[in-house]
Amino acid sequence: MEKTVKGLSVGSVLITSWFATALSGIVLLQAYFYYRSKPKNDLKIFTILIVVLLLLDSAHIVCIMITIYHYLIENFGNNDALGELVPSLALTVGLTGTITFFAQSFFTWRVWKLSRKNIIAPITFLLQIARLTLGWVTTARAIHYGTFDDWATKVRWLFTTGVSVAVACDILITGGLCYWLHGSRTGLSSMDEAIDKLILYSVENGLLTCVFSIASLVCAIIMPGNLVFIGIHFVISKLYISSVLTALNTRNSFRARKDRVSMKPTLNMFSFGEGTSGSARDQNSFALHPPRHTPRGLGVITIDKTEEVHISSSKNDVTNPTESFNIVATDHGSTQNHEGAFDSVKVMAV
To answer: DUF6534 domain: which residues (predicted)?
Structure first.
C-alpha cells in the first residue's frame, strides 16, 4: 500500500509536469503575440508585468525539473528518498503564490477603475497579500521540516488556507468585473455586444483558475498521503499568467477592430447630405446623416466632417485643408449619454 501511494505521488508529479511545461510554451506564445500587437503608447507597467511573470514562470519550471530529476533520476529505485520533501518542490508553492499575487493584482486594478474606487478592490487586495504571505510561509516551513509526514501534520493547513484565499479572490474579482460591466449596458447594440464579450472573457478566466485551485484544495484535504494536489498546483501558475496575457491580447484585438471600423463606415448606415451654400465653410463640407426613419432599437452614429481651406492673397499660396470630425451616438432618434459604457470599455481596454 505504501509503495502504491509513493508511486501515485511520483506519477502525478511527472504527468502534471508535462502539462505545466506545455502550458509554459503556450504562455510564451501569448507573450510573443502581445509584444507583436501591442500599441506603441501602451503603458510600460504592462510590459514590466509580463517580463516579471515570465521570469517567475521560468524559475517555477526549473524547480519542477529539479524535483523530477531528484526523485526519478538521482534517487531512482530509492524508496526512502520518496519520503523527503526537497526544497525545489517547496519553492514551487511560494512561486505560485507570487504569480497569483501579480495576476490577481492586475485584475483587481481593473475592478478598482471600473467600479470607480469601490471598497471591494481594497478588500480583494488585502486577501491577495494574505495569499502571498501564506504561500511563502508554507514554503519556509516545508523546507524546515523536510519530510512529507511533517507536511501532512504541520504544514498542510497553511497550504489549504492559502489556496482557499486565492479562490475567494478569484470569485470576488470575477463577480466584480461582471457586475460593473453589466451595469454599464446602455441598450446600444454595438456597445452592449462589446460589453458582453468582456463579461464572457472575465468569466472564462476566473472560472478556469477557480476549478484547478478547488481541485488542488480538495485533493490536499482528502488525499494527504500523495502528491496529486501538488501536481495540480503546478498548473495553476500557468493559468494565471495565461489569463493576464489573454486579457491584454483581447484588449489589443478590440483596439484593432475599433480602428478598422472607424476607417470604414458602411454606406447602408448613412445617407449623404449636401451642405447649404452661403459660406466658404459650407461649400467645402459634407455630412453623413442618418435616414429620417430609423428602425426602433437601432443605434446610429452621425459623423460630421468639415474641411476648411484658407486662401491668401497670393495666387499659389493655398494652405493644406484641415479636417475636423464630430461623432454623435444616437438611439431611438435621440442623442443619449453613453459615458458609463464608454468608460467601462475604456477601462478594460487600458
So the answer is: 166-253
Q: Using the 3D structure, point to which of 223, 244, 263 is the last residue of a domain.
A: 263
CB atoms within 10 A of CB 292: 7
Query: CA-CA distance, 292 to 297, in Å (whole number)?
Result: 14
Is residue 328 domain-shared with residue 190, that is, in the same domain?
no
175/234 same-domain check: yes
How many alpha carbons fall within 13 Å on the CB side of residue 267?
A: 1
Note whether 345 and 198 are within 8 A (CB): yes
Other CB atoms closer than 10 Å to residue 312's CB: what's the count?
9
pLDDT tens digits, 5-53: 455 577 888 999 999 999 999 999 999 999 988 888 888 999 999 999 9
Distance of alpha carbon 247 from alpha carbon 240, whole angstroms:
11
pLDDT at 258: 53
Parent domain of 199: 2-263
**Helices 44-69 and 2-37: angle between axes, nearest 10 degrees:** 150
Question: Residue 336 class from Cβ within 10 Å (0-12 exposed, 13-18 middle, 19+ buried)?
Answer: middle
The rounded distance, in Å, linking the Cα atoms of 196 and 331 is 19
